[in-house]
Amino acid sequence: MKLWFDITLLNGGDVLKRGIQAIFYTFFSRKFLTFCLLGCVNTFNASLLTYFADFVLQKNLAANFGYIGSLIVAFFLNCKFIFKKPPTLKAMIRFCISYIPNYIIFNLASAIAINAWHLEPEWGTALAVLVGGPITFVIIKVYAFETPNEIKIHRPFIHKHENAEETDEKG
């Protein structure tokens, strides 16, 4: 599959081009799109749990309760539908560690939405998903579910003639 763009810069264009390709193939992959779909389910779960917890807990605590509850559901959904791996305690621990940056983003977004903008906690959850989702996907993919041997770097622009030229120059 060839991308619609081709970037070439002097002395390093290849590195930039490969970086852009890696980003493109990470965020336009079936795994990421499924992650986004499950993210909608998880956002609904977090919002629903937050809504009910809001009746008995302080708003910020209710938002955290919803987040943690949906995190547990998210782990099992990621195992089954995205990474197709059996759930293990090690994977769950790594998954939870992978969500620490997202949790920080979540708390900041919730605090801003609830305390500064005076919105309901559900809006903080939605804001956190939009900001933290892509970051979290990369972290859980690399750290929680894939071993170093499974991580693939996509190099669709390497053509046989490019390799031949490199061989000729070296040889």
Description:
There is one protein chain. The protein is an all-alpha fold. The protein is 74% helix and 0% strand. The N terminus and C terminus are likely disordered.
Question: Helices and strands in order, then pairings?
Answer:
Elements lengths: L12 H15 L2 H24 L5 H24 L6 H10 L1 H17 L4 H25 L14 H11 L1
Helix pairs in contact: 2-3, 2-6, 3-5, 3-6, 4-6, 5-6
Question: Descriptors for this entry?
Answer:
single chain, 171 residues, mainly alpha, 7 helices, globular, disordered N terminus
Residue runs with pLDDT of under 50 for 5 or more positions? 1-11, 153-171
Number of helical regions: 7
List how many beta strands DSSP finds: 0
Q: Radius of gyration, rounded?
A: 20 Å
Outline type? globular
Measured by DSSP, the beta-strand proportion falls in under 5%
Largest sheet: none
**Structural class of the helix and strand makeup?**
mainly alpha
Order of helices and strands: HHHHHHH
Helix content: over 70%
Whole-Å distance between the termini?
31 Å
Average predicted confidence as pLDDT: 79
